[in-house]
Amino acid sequence: MREEGEGYDEGVHGTRAAVHAASGGRLGAAHPRQEGPTDLRLVPPALAAWATSAVMLDAAPAWVTGTAVGCLVLAGVLMTLRVGRARRVSRAGRVPGVRTGDRPGWPAVTAAAVLVCVAAAAVSAGLHGADLRRGPLPGLAERYATVIAEAEITSDPRLVRPRVRGPAPAPTAVLIEADVRRVETRDGATLVTRTPVLMVVDVERRRSSSASSASSAFSAGDRPSPWLALLPSTRVRVTARVVPPADGGDTAAVLRVRDPKVPEVVGEPSAAQRLAGRLRAGLREATDGLAPDARALLPGLVVGDTARITPELDEAFKETDLAHTLAVSGSNLTIILVLLVGPPGLAQRVERRGLAPRLGISLRTTALLGGALTLGFVIVCRPDPSVLRAAACGAVALLALATGRRRSLIPALATAVLLLVLYDPWLSRSYGFLLSVLATGALLTLAPRWSAALRARRVPPRLAEALAAAAAAQALCAPVVAVLSARVSLVAVPCNLLVEFAIAPATVLGFAALATAPWAMPVAKALAWCAGWPAGWIADVARTGAALPGAGIDWPGSWTGAALLALATVALLLAGRRLLRHPWWCGACGVLLLLAVVQPPPLTRVVTGWPPPGWRFAMCDVGQGDATVLAAGAGTGVVVDAGPDPVLVDRCLRTLGITRIPLVVLTHFHADHVAGLPGVLRGRQVGAIETTAYQEPVDQAEFVRREAAARGVSVTRAAAGEERRTGGLSWRVVWPPADPTVVPEGPNDASVALLVRSAGLRLLLLGDLEPPAQRALLRSPAGPLLGGVDVLKVAHHGSAYQDPGLLSRAAPRLALISAGADNTYGHPAPGTVAALRAMGAVVLSTDRDGALAVTGEGAELGVAGD
Q: Which of 354, 328, 479, 459 is nearest to 17 (CA)?
């Protein structure tokens, strides 16, 4: 089961060298104009095979057989007619006045080739689709049976950290693609099969004796699961429940492993996989001493090992359309090949560069050595379809080198697509494969022309080439990316340009560290240290780009939305051609785009009215969670809770213009209140973090301490009676009680509750307190202070569990609720909203009204929405 957005575009950088060849002068001694038009004859067969594979994977055997036979018969008829016509033309060639240079029947040959490829694709797709329907597993999945299975692992295990969608994140799981070879059922039957499945192992997080800040398969302080150390071709024996696949992909069933602690290995991996595993483990060890971002990113850049990538960093790469750098791509291969052959644009010229000419290696031998490097690349990075796809895209430059003709690049890409779709028909439904082909096609067709147009307008050649490549890939891939993410990045092109110069040194030095680690670890660590600088730069670009308020815009996540974006892109390109004739207009448009992306708070306030002048309290729209801000002066605010998403809370604070935070109050440790903490701490001066004394859930409490320690921020604990002041803002902690013998019923009832004064405004922030704690608060010494507040932050996202006595005592004029749109918890509860309105309160919630900001005081109390 492949991830839909896998690799974003494994061809964006995979054919960067091909762009040099296609736009950087001539290949060999031939002038580009002498090569004639591009040969497109292989494109229709490749597209036909692609479409046929996508359709026939679910087709019945009768349809597959009928399609294949019908296409072969039609192809035979066309070729017979073509041969007959060729003979007639040959005889006519001896008649005076009849031209003899015609080559009749080529449309028939192309049509026949398309039909043959359709037949082959139908057969291949039919056989692969039948693999999911044969054998005992589909029937066992329908019954949700428990079995003992022996499975051979076919890909690297990967860790899945689901998004926070409630008080606690879903269990972390290890996903492993495998082929089940033997099944033992409860009735004692043993069945032999070969069926593709997805194994899901819910991993138990285990504490290590000493916490470490190093990233691993889990966050620091946890030992990685032994399941993540399994290599492809390893055979394991598991007890699992068989369930149907959720998405109808390329797996027959899902095996939910019952005992996830230690895998039972019954067959060792192959020698090639052991070698690849040793090299990859050596690279991880060599990067252990690097800064967190470089340590996480470098293995991903080199061999696609993303186990150390944190959810926050992964989200930043997606927001900036840099996710392709985290996947094995053709760029990895092409960069290494450039060391051997030099720039492909000079590959056949006397002044060609690289190691090969320096060693006196001929051009053909160089191509063979390049093929050997490609094979080694596939072995180290795993020979699964995604790696083979990347190798095929990267090999386009090699084929151009071997043939010496630029016009062979498009046929080479079409051949790669055709062979890969026939080899693995499931690629025809892969968004990653679609993006890869679109990006590669953009770099081979649009990018050279755009580069030439920019050079004609006096743009430096290197800059023109890089800008054209990034813009062409983005133009063709953006509609598909919009389908996947329902968002369009406005910073993708500049971010890709900024990381372009860092990818090559990071990859080359990373591969050098990979090769030397098994034999000379100190040298490997030195090389990894050098590679860590460009890798860290790439991560910084991703984080900075993702943090910009206008980094992206929401877009319909459907194929209709993709079509609209494609039309908008075409319109933009047509307008851009006219704008290029007017440099001043281009500059003005560039400044407007920059302002739209950066969104300086003063300008944003003038244009949008958000945040309103003189705001006192803001409730960020962070989905199903809490994140609020108390204004404490220009650019200064006290943050109460951080929400579930670092990107969203960071964006909210940037919009509010918050750069200094004297205190962050985390009311309790549920993930929907603390998981966004990295976004709060990013790029801001933070004085301290205050939390509840009840350290549950333990893993989230440890997460907060690690994030604080990594940035040198102290962590204190709040208790009732504590009073603080900063600027014109003061507050009193009214819950939890300072008595350590009082044990709350759970994390919600341990929430820190604050009574706040901002000038003449009184606010009561209740965290997620539930009725037992609310009643205890009402009876506490702080109870008499709670009457007649101006603003109430309603407890627990406006759930139905509220104490009427506390609501009646508070009697708020304005009640604000933080809840996610279309959440599954029913927040806010209609009964709670009705009760508050019956008391005369104005009730607003972020799920309907967006971010909210309170202004004024007394009779001038107001609230504005974003």
A: 354
Contact yes or no for 469/492 (Cβ under 8 A): no
The rounded distance, in Å, linking the Cα atoms of 44 and 67 is 18
Nearby residues of 728 by Cβ (< 8 Å), 6 or more positions away: 632, 633, 758, 759
Average pLDDT over residues 426-446: 83
Counting Cα atoms < 13 Å in the Cβ hemisphere of 186 gives 8
How far is residue 483's CA from residue 183's CA, in Å, rounded to a whole number?
Answer: 39
Chain-centre distance for alpha carbon 641: 26
Q: Is residue 94 classed exposed, middle or buried when 0-12, 13-18 and 19+ CB atoms within 10 A define those classes?
A: exposed
Whole-angstrom distance, CA of residue 178 vs CA of residue 407: 40
State residue 657's pLDDT score. Answer: 86
C-alpha closest to that of 535 among 559, 501, 562: 501
Read off the tokens for 817. Answer: 């609720």
Over 90: is that where the pLDDT of 765 sits? yes
Q: Are strands 615-619 and 173-184 parallel, antiparallel or unpaired?
A: unpaired
Q: Which of 141, 147, 139 is nearest to 258 (CA)?
A: 147
Dihedral sign for Cα atoms in the order 188, 194, 197, 201: positive
For the segment 783-787, the average pLDDT, to the nearest whole number, is 87
Q: What is the pLDDT of residues 302-329, one digit of tens each?
A: 887 777 887 778 888 888 888 877 766 5
pLDDT exceeds 90 at position 390: no
490 three-state secondary structure: coil
pLDDT of residue 444: 79
Alpha-carbon span 849 to 864, nearest angstrom: 9
pLDDT in tens, 249-258: 788 899 998 7
Paired tokens of 485: 């993410």
DSSP 222: B
Close Cβ partners of 422 (under 8 Å, ≥ 6 residues apart):
49, 53, 120, 121, 124
Structure-model confidence comparison of residues 728 and 535, the more confident one: 535
Cα dist from 620 to 193, 319, 668, whole Å: 54, 20, 18
Query: 661, 685 in Cβ contact below 8 A?
Result: yes
pLDDT number for residue 213: 31
Burial pattern 605-621, b for ≥16 Cβ within 10 A else e, equals: beeeebbbeebbbbbbb
- pTM value > 0.85: no
Q: Which helix (H) or strand (E) holds 87?
A: helix 61-92
Residue linked to tokens 């007017």 = 582
